[in-house]
Each structure stands twice: as structure tokens, then as C-alpha cells.
């Protein structure tokens, strides 16, 4: 039916204007958030929040990422991360209402909240990846330094001593020849230790269980390691590598932080869901909430280990407290 009064025409015009205003705010919000660099997301989100408040008839709009009191008449809209994540990444808080909130405006606010939530979640992922990348690069440099020191202080010195002994053995002296043989064998052992520290051949050749037994045998003095390893067959290569690195990291941390005489138990078993690795020590323990992502001498760091496990569809949990030891559990699907 066509409108037959001026009042009807004005009503339709105002409704069209309102729809155009909502659409404009939505488009501008999407463009502003998508075009902002990672360090500009917060400012863009704040600007979008203010525009959303004005659109919905509020004086102020802001983004809060922690629990904040909501004053009477204010409206709090959760900013959900994409992908159906249960936890919100923040709240769009609209304050000081200037009128009545229309249903269409509430729907527009929901869309704006999704846009802001997606942008903030992406920013958080970028920051986390940047932190992990910096940690990984630092770890690689530390590993190169460790290998260089081992080669320089161990293998290179042994090779130089062997060369001198071979010079002395040029006259065929049996004692010098015997000593040269001993030094050559020691050099081979040192080289194998350096190679095993990077990636033990036994992991590729024989599998995870022999590699873990070898790793436990190399744990060093002052650390008592017991094991319970029950696998019917070899896991996939990615799973083998991930579980081996978790044990390597845990033993490294135990040597550095658990204290003298610490006992470590490593349990690995297949479950209905996949694989479960539990590493428990009776050392000094720590507060996981205050633990840096990586520490000097802690290898790849627990944060990188968790990221690696999660990328394979599993999870890594840590239970510890000062004076109560540490338990680290890695669970991976088959």
C-alpha cells in the first residue's frame, strides 16, 4: 500500500535514513578494522565503539577487556572471538543512553561486536605468534652457540690432540699408536654426543621408546630417571618428534631447576584417544602463572612446547607449586 499522508512519508524517509546510517557505520567499521596494522587495532576499535554508541543512541562507547561495572542504563555487548570460541575477548560497553534502543540498532551492535571481536582476536594471535617467533629465534641462536662451544671446546680440541699424537706416532712407536687409537675413539664418542644433542639417530632408526631410554641414560648425575613406556607400535613421525622434544625439555628443566637429587618419572602410554605422556618430578617446583615463556637454559621453552602440541591437535598441561614438584602432561590424538 502506498503512503497517503505526509506523516507516512516522513516516517518512511526517517526509517530509510536510519537503515543507511546503520549500513554506513557497519561498512566503515569493517574497513577501519581490516585496514589497521596490528599496533593500530586498539585505536580503530575504540573509534568504532564510539560510532556504535552514537548509532544506538548512547553518549559514550568503549572497549573493556576486563570485568568492569555496568552502570544502570548502560549496555554491555560481548566481543566474541570468531570460530565459535566460548570465551569473549572483551566487551563493547555503551554508556549514558540518550533514547530508546531500537531492535534494528541492537542487531547492528551485534554485527559490530563480531567485527571488533574478530579484530582483537587476530591481534592477540599476531602478538602470540610474534612472541613465539622471537622465542624460537632466540632458542635457535642459543642452540647454535651451544653446538659451537661443544665443537670448539670438545671436538676441535680432541681432533687437535689426535693430530699431534699422529705426528708423534710417525716413527711407529707402539705407545703413540695406541694413544692415537684411544684419542680417535674418544673423538668419535664426542661427535656422536653432539649429534645426539641435536637429533639422536636412534629416534629415526629405532623409534620413540629406545630414543627416550637413551635420553634418560644421558640425563647426567644428580638426576634419577625412571620410566614406564607402553606403546604397541610407533606413532607418526610428527608425534614421535613432539613427544621426544617434550621429554627433552622436561629433563633439561629438571636438571636446571629441580635441585640436586631430584627424581623424575616418565610415563608414556596409548589411550583410546591417542597418546598420553606424563612427566613428574619431586623437585623445587614453581608457580606456572609467573613462569616466563622461556628461561635461559630451558631449551625451546614450555610455551613453544604447548604450541607444538596444540598444532597436532593435542594439549599440554602443567601442574606445579613451589616446593611440591612438577607434573607435565602431553596428550595427542593418534
Describe the structure.
- By secondary structure, the chain is α+β, with helices and mostly antiparallel strands.
- The chain folds into two domains: 119 residues, Beta-Lactamase (2-Layer Sandwich), CATH 3.30.450.40; 133 residues, Histidine kinase-like ATPase, C-terminal domain (Heat Shock Protein 90), CATH 3.30.565.10.
- The strands form two sheets. A five-stranded mixed sheet has the order 4-5-6-8-7. Strands 1-3-2 form a three-stranded antiparallel sheet.
- α1 runs antiparallel to α2, α1 packs parallel to α3 and α7 packs antiparallel against α8.
- The termini are far apart.
- About 3% of the residues have low confidence.
Provide a compact summary of the structure.
The protein is of the alpha+beta class and 334 residues long.
How far apart are the termini? 64 Å
Mean pLDDT: 81
Number of domains: 2
* Portion in helices: 55-70%
CATH superfamily of the largest domain: Histidine kinase-like ATPase, C-terminal domain
Named CATH topology of the largest domain: Heat Shock Protein 90
Structural class: alpha+beta
Note the overall shape: elongated
Tell me the radius of gyration.
31 Å
- What strand order characterises the main sheet? 4-5-6-8-7
Largest sheet at a glance?
A: 5 strands, mixed
Helix-strand pattern: HHEEEHHHHEHEEHEE
Poorly predicted sequence stretches spanning 5 or more consecutive residues: 292-300
Would you count the extended β strands for me? 8
CATH architecture of the largest domain: 2-Layer Sandwich
In percent, how much strand structure appears in the residues?
15-25%
Helix tally equals 8
Amino acid at each position: 500500500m502506498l503512503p497517503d499522508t505526509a506523516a507516512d512519508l516522513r516516517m518512511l524517509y526517517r526509517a530509510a535514513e536510519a537503515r543507511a546510517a546503520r549500513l554506513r557505520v557497519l561498512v566503515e567499521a569493517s574497513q577501519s578494522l581490516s585496514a589497521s596494522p596490528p599496533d593500530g587495532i586498539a585505536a580503530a576499535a575504540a573509534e568504532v565503539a564510539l560510532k556504535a554508541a552514537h548509532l544506538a543512541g548512547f553518549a559514550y562507547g568503549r572497549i573493556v577487556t576486563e570485568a568492569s561495572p555496568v552502570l544502570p542504563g548502560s549496555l554491555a555487548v560481548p566481543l566474541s572471538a570468531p570460530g565459535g570460541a566460548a570465551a569473549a575477548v572483551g566487551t563493547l560497553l555503551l554508556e549514558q543512553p540518550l533514547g530508546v534502543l531500537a531492535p534494528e540498532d541492537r542487531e547492528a551492535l551485534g554485527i559490530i561486536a563480531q567485527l571488533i571481536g574478530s579484530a582483537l582476536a587476530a591481534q592477540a594471535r599476531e602478538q602470540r605468534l610474534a612472541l613465539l617467533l622471537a622465542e624460537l629465534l632466540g632458542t635457535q641462536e642459543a642452540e647454535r652457540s651451544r653446538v659451537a662451544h661443544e665443537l670448539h671446546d670438545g671436538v676441535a680440541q680432541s681432533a687437535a690432540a689426535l693430530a699431534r699424537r699422529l705426528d708423534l706416532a710417525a716413527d711407529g712407536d707402539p705407545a703413540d699408536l695406541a694413544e692415537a687409537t684411544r684419542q680417535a675413539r674418544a673423538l668419535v664418542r664426542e661427535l656422536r654426543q653432539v649429534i645426539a644433542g641435536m637429533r639422536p639417530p636412534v629416534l629415526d632408526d629405532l623409534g620413540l621408546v629406545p630414543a627416550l631410554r637413551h635420553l634418560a641414560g644421558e640425563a647426567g648425575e644428580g638426576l634419577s630417571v625412571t620410566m614406564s613406556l607402553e606403546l604397541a607400535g610407533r606413532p607418526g613421525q610428527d608425534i614421535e618428534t613432539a613427544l621426544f622434544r617434550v621429554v627433552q625439555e622436561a629433563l633439561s628443566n629438571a636438571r636446571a631447576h629441580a635441585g640436586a637429587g631430584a627424581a623424575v618419572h616418565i610415563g608414556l602410554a596409548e589411550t583410546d584417544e591417542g597418546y598420553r605422556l606424563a612427566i613428574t618430578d619431586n623437585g623445587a617446583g614453581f608457580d606456572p602463572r609467573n613462569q616466563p615463556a622461556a628461561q635461559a637454559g630451558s631449551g625451546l621453552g614450555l610455551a613453544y612446547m604447548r604450541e607444538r602440541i596444540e598444532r597436532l591437535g593435542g594439549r599440554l598441561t602443567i601442574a606445579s607449586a613451589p616446593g611440591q614438584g612438577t607434573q607435565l602432561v602431553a596428550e595427542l590424538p593418534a
